[in-house]
Amino acid sequence: MTRVLYELAAADPDRRFSPFCWRIRLALEHKGLAFEGRPWRFVETDAIAFSGSDKVPVLVEDGQAIAESSVIAAHLEAAYPDRPSLFGGAAGAALTRFSIAWTDQVLHPALVPLLLLDIHRHLDEPNRRYFRESREARFRKPLEAVCPDPEAQRVTLRRTLSPVRAVLRSQPFLGGESPLYADHAVMGAFLWARGVSVQALLEPDDPVEAWRLRMLERLGEGSRALVSG
Amino acid sequence: MTRVLYELAAADPDRRFSPFCWRIRLALEHKGLAFEGRPWRFVETDAIAFSGSDKVPVLVEDGQAIAESSVIAAHLEAAYPDRPSLFGGAAGAALTRFSIAWTDQVLHPALVPLLLLDIHRHLDEPNRRYFRESREARFRKPLEAVCPDPEAQRVTLRRTLSPVRAVLRSQPFLGGESPLYADHAVMGAFLWARGVSVQALLEPDDPVEAWRLRMLERLGEGSRALVSG
């Protein structure tokens, strides 16, 4: 079987920086499924038009395209039930949705102001134009004005992580003794940041930082190459 | 078997207002286990000294005392494996901890400013003194100064609920098709509020409000009597 994951990339194709694409990369590694991660940029909508989506991640297995990270994760769980589970059963799948919703609605908004300029810097000209226009419309201000005080925003981010921190004080992963898709969802945010930025988001003695390092250690070989730069 | 749950109560013994006690009440009903809910007040530490705890919930089964809501919930799951599961398996138990941590660390702090004066009003004199002293030490201001703008605080509370709302747009309960302990943890906050306050915390068209009403409908008979006032 051929398996291709279209992933958001910067001008340098090894800078992959979509948190949603990282979730699926981690999910594929979790399932032990080989794949080609194909770099894709914002403006290349024609290249994935066949999928019916204008956004990544798009997973293509033997010509069958699936878009949207949660749909792809559910597909992987259903299609490969003999591989390690992403959710730990039906109840786990239902409960995971809260971690995902929290990541999307609370964690990402706390992180994105810290990354906008880093992302912009790493794009080529046509993607820079797209990124600036779409994000300035969303934030209703110039990119440069979204995060006037990065250190204060990092403090907000660390405070935002308090429920993750509380869990990681009592168990090594959100999934318990080993990671589940809930871990991949939260880790997607940190790999997004790592793809474009060198800033230290967490304090060295933060249990969330220890967990982030444990998650990095577990990356597959292909992903290691992407985050080693 | 005799089974007694010590629950935080106001001067009126039917006003039960600890979110942690409500979690266990809902968990006992979830497991279909009969129990006596015994009202207990802040200053009655002597009455539960036998448990080694100075706080409720305390569950006593045939003379064996267990304190702390998460410990009690884990006990119920382990001791009654043939009854409906609170967590849906080991992965579910691990994933539930994030919902609990979020409830404790994010939802409760958004709610408590709205309830302090209501709680105070419903206590008898010795408990009022205890409550005012302990809470004013915690907030470092008079009870009356903690929430100068209740309507703004209710807006904050509703915004805080956004990840719960997102999940409830796609499934009827946090646990999926039926409630799990994650639902009981979040519902504990709303039953805490209902025990002492008549303010409408949620908008009528909020999916969280629809879920709250579904949860109320599922209450056992004994709990219905407590919330009908």
UniProtKB/TrEMBL annotation, chains A, B:
Record-linked CDD domains: GST_C_etherase_LigE
InterPro entries in the record: Glutathione-S-Trfase_C_sf, Glutathione_S-Trfase_N, GST_Omega/HSP26, GST_UstS-like_C, Thioredoxin-like_sf
GO MF assignments: transferase activity
Domain GST N-terminal: 8-84
Pfam families: GST_C_7 (PF22041), GST_N_3 (PF13417)
PROSITE patterns per record: GST_NTER
Gene3D superfamilies xrefs: 1.20.1050.10, Glutaredoxin (3.40.30.10)
Organism of provenance: Methylobacterium nonmethylotrophicum
One GO cellular component, as annotated: cytoplasm
Keyword annotations: Transferase
Recorded superkingdom: Bacteria
Keyword Transcription carried by entry: no
Listed name of the protein: Glutathione S-transferase family protein
